[in-house]
């Protein structure tokens, strides 16, 4: 009986680790509960899913994903100034922001959120970078496929 292999639509139970170019873990499920996800549901970047297709249940492997392939290219238009008055309306007016802080914003429809990193502070506004922190970066992905349905 052949081992099940990952196909589009497969439901996976797996451990995985995603690390940036400096080797620092971004996500690491090893040593905790395994993750469950469905191929094609948008839970992983398409470039990562492509590497999983065809792998057999039980496989433990890792691969490098080239710069920009996993989280896209940096987009200079996603670096924007936001007025402090607007930030006060969206959240706590007394928050003190620091360069490097990650701030969550509600989507316009209110059914989700997105994050920006504080890049620069001025008197009336704060500059945020809404690019993914790993945009334009090569990443390393390690995976252990526990189950494939």
Short description:
With 149 residues, this protein is mainly β. Helix content is 9%, strand content 38%.
Report on this structure.
This protein is 9% helix and 38% strand. The mean pLDDT is 92. It is elongated, with a radius of gyration of 19 Å. The protein is mostly beta strands and 149 residues long. A hairpin with a 6-residue loop joins strand 6 (102-106) and strand 7.
How do the SSEs run, as a string of H and E? EEEHEEHEEEE
Count of helix runs: 2
- Alpha-carbon Rg, integer: 19 Å
Percent of residues in helices comes to under 10%
Uncertain stretches: none
How many E strands?
Answer: 9
Helical/strand content category = mainly beta
The largest β sheet comes out as: 5 strands, antiparallel
Taken as a percent bin, the fraction of beta residues is 35-45%
Ends apart, CA distance between termini? 15 Å
Oligomer: single chain
